[in-house]
Amino acid sequence: MKHSPRLVVALAALAAANLQAAPPARVEIAYQMLRNGSHVADVVTRLEHDGKSYVLTEAWQGRGIFSLLGEAKRTSRGSVAASGLVPEAFLDERRGSAWGEALFDWRAKVLTMRHKGESHQTPLAEPVQDRLSVLFGFAFAFPATNPFTLYSTDGRGVSTNVYDLAGRAPLTTPAGEFATLKIAKRRDRPDDRTTEIWLAVDRYLLPLKVVVTEQDGERLEQIAARLSLAPAP
């Protein structure tokens, strides 16, 4: 894809700005999870970092009939580098037990994944993220090309997705109105799900909205209901 000079300059400016201004030491975003428009869960994601290391936690609590599924929690730990977040460990817990886990050995370039008690390894040939760090990594470093490729794991395998910069767009959420930068995942096959992500332009490119649309039309929407930014104590 040929990039316009204006787009390249805009991407470079975003990347430079994020290298100079990382988000505050503590960030908390409360989201509403909607399924085909119905509020099915509340999600709270917390980011803590000191410029060298980070911890991301995400807690899910179902609403109504979905509360019977119990709570879920995800945790990502790692380091902060000029290239962004570098995960070292990811854990996905459901109903109090490990559902998925990923351990990143960057020195040996080996990724160990565990899912429901089964374990396997694969080479770390690319800058792989996990399900949490892939979303919050934009706040520390934004890709300088368009399109760009993201590699991520949830403990079962590694997915490869190509994203396009869809441009700036105003966004109204329960947390307020924001100027956002929208990115959208390319569909490699007609039966692929679509993924769209809205990043807050004046809030360190933090993720405010994520929409996943399945091939059958089912729509899952995660949208910010509350945003809290706090410096280190």
Summarize the structure.
The protein has 233 residues and is mainly beta. It has helices at residues 5-20, 133-136, and strands at residues 26-35, 38-49, 53-62, 71-81, 84-94, 97-105, 110-115, 118-123, 129-130, 148-153, 158-173, 176-185, 194-200, 207-213, 219-230.
**What fraction strand?**
over 45%
CATH class: Mainly Beta
Strand order of the largest sheet: 8-7-6-5-4-3-2-1-15-14-13-12-11-10-9
Structural class based on helices, strands and sheet pairing: mainly beta
Our Rg estimate from Cα atoms comes to 17 Å
The tally of structural domains comes to 1
Give me the strand/helix succession: HEEEEEEEEEHEEEEEE
CATH architecture: Clam
Overall pLDDT confidence: 88
Per DSSP, the total helix count is 2
Residue windows where pLDDT falls under 50 for at least 5 positions: none
Major β-sheet profile: 15 strands, mixed
Notes on the structure:
With 233 residues, the protein is mostly beta strands. It has one domain (5-230): outer membrane lipoprotein receptor (LolB), chain A (Clam), CATH 2.50.20. Helix content is 9%, strand content 58%. It has helices at 5-20, 133-136; strands at residues 26-35, 38-49, 53-62, 71-81, 84-94, 97-105, 110-115, 118-123, 129-130, 148-153, 158-173, 176-185, 194-200, 207-213, 219-230. The chain has a 15-stranded mixed beta sheet with strand order 8-7-6-5-4-3-2-1-15-14-13-12-11-10-9. It is globular.
